[in-house]
Amino acid sequence: SRNSMEDGGGSPQTHGTCSICFEDGLRPEALYALPCGHMFCRICWGSFLSVAFEEGRILDTNCPYDGCDELVTDADIAEIAPHRIGAWRDQRLKDFINLDGSHRFCPGPGCNMVAIDPGTGSESAATCCSCETTFCFGCGESPHRPAACADFGKWNSIYASSKFWIRKNSKPCPGCGAPIEKDHGCNHMHCTRCDCHFCWICLTTIGADGVLNTHVCNKYDPTGDDSTEEGRNIFYAMRYGSHEEAENFARMQLENMPAILERLKEEPPYLSDEDGYTLKRAVEILV
């Protein structure tokens, strides 16, 4: 019996001692023990389970006695803290899914669906049938094949770093050194302080008409000022970010293309239907 107290002769005891707070003279109904026999008062049990719940230790919560491996079960929770039984079972299910490699929660906002590995590989892409979120089954991030989850994790650590954010969003003008922050638009930048035109990605000076001069955006120079491994990583992370932003911009243009074409047809030099088709087709190819 999990909560009874008996002496050597089998007769019920009239009092006992909690092994945590050492309060003695406690009646049997004030104490509780797992099959291991270690007795604790219900107040200490409640505090112990509260901490275990807050720390997320549901699957491996055992007897509070030092060195005892007896696990706490649903029946124990229902007896000691019945108000927690529903949340306890929910958390236990979540812990199981998070620890089991063949199951994964959908990372979609507010979605509680669970994906099951169909046997195609842990890093295959999965699409939720409820919210339609597509994600990597192995790590829960956006699909990243052929890169492995470990490599994608390293990439994210670079892409989300504060140094990368500063390099990506704030740069000095190559003409006068004034700090410039870019929050939208294309990569052709114009400094209003010194009238310098330059490429936002690599800071190469260009003509006001957009003509590039010795412009090599995507070629890393290992002999440059920032030739460290971190500098190389940030270099390619910035190129990736620029291409991602360009893709999003092109998709937005494609979505708004009907309105854009109507506006261009009504304004000088009055876009023809053939030119409109060419423009739309060019954006479709970009996407």
From TrEMBL:
<dbReference type="Pfam" id="PF13445">
    <property type="entry name" value="zf-RING_UBOX"/>
</dbReference>
<keyword id="KW-0863">Zinc-finger</keyword>
<dbReference type="GO" id="GO:0061630">
    <property type="term" value="F:ubiquitin protein ligase activity"/>
</dbReference>
<dbReference type="Pfam" id="PF22605">
    <property type="entry name" value="IBR_2"/>
</dbReference>
<dbReference type="InterPro" id="IPR044066">
    <property type="entry name" value="TRIAD_supradom"/>
</dbReference>
<feature type="domain" description="RING-type">
    <location>
        <begin position="14"/>
        <end position="221"/>
    </location>
</feature>
<dbReference type="InterPro" id="IPR001841">
    <property type="entry name" value="Znf_RING"/>
</dbReference>
<keyword id="KW-0833">Ubl conjugation pathway</keyword>
<dbReference type="GO" id="GO:0016567">
    <property type="term" value="P:protein ubiquitination"/>
</dbReference>
<feature type="domain" description="RING-type">
    <location>
        <begin position="18"/>
        <end position="66"/>
    </location>
</feature>
<dbReference type="GO" id="GO:0008270">
    <property type="term" value="F:zinc ion binding"/>
</dbReference>
<dbReference type="InterPro" id="IPR054694">
    <property type="entry name" value="Parkin-like_IBR"/>
</dbReference>
<keyword id="KW-0808">Transferase</keyword>
<keyword id="KW-0862">Zinc</keyword>
<keyword id="KW-0677">Repeat</keyword>
<dbReference type="InterPro" id="IPR027370">
    <property type="entry name" value="Znf-RING_euk"/>
</dbReference>
<keyword id="KW-0479">Metal-binding</keyword>
<dbReference type="Pfam" id="PF01485">
    <property type="entry name" value="IBR"/>
</dbReference>
<comment type="pathway">
    <text>Protein modification; protein ubiquitination.</text>
</comment>
<dbReference type="InterPro" id="IPR031127">
    <property type="entry name" value="E3_UB_ligase_RBR"/>
</dbReference>
<dbReference type="InterPro" id="IPR047548">
    <property type="entry name" value="Rcat_RBR_RNF14"/>
</dbReference>
<dbReference type="InterPro" id="IPR002867">
    <property type="entry name" value="IBR_dom"/>
</dbReference>
<dbReference type="InterPro" id="IPR013083">
    <property type="entry name" value="Znf_RING/FYVE/PHD"/>
</dbReference>
<protein>
    <recommendedName>
        <fullName>RBR-type E3 ubiquitin transferase</fullName>
        <ecNumber>2.3.2.31</ecNumber>
    </recommendedName>
</protein>
<comment type="similarity">
    <text>Belongs to the RBR family. RNF14 subfamily.</text>
</comment>
